[in-house]
Write a structure and sequence with these properties.
Length: 108
Amino acid sequence: YNHDLNHFLVQLPKAAPNAAVPVYTANIYLMKHIKYRFAVCDAPESTGELVITLYDQGKELISSYNKSTGKKYSSIDFICNKTGLYTLWYDFIDGEQGSGVGVVCMIK
């Protein structure tokens, strides 16, 4: 079964020209040997497509968007191999304006 841990409501403006893409970040505590699912869902009126990227101390671990192929996933699974604090980055592809929701679940 899925055990819902967290919801993140993400609403970001369109990126200004030549500026960094707006990002919503959140810290999350993950436990070793647990499988997590990170899902993203765009609001109907959203022009942007929401992306989740998981970082461990600044190192990218997994993302729902593959920049090289342009493929976007609505959810990604991650098996944690180290208990600790991780950072979630939510942003919209190409810095588009958007709103959506990110959900984190534990998978049993």
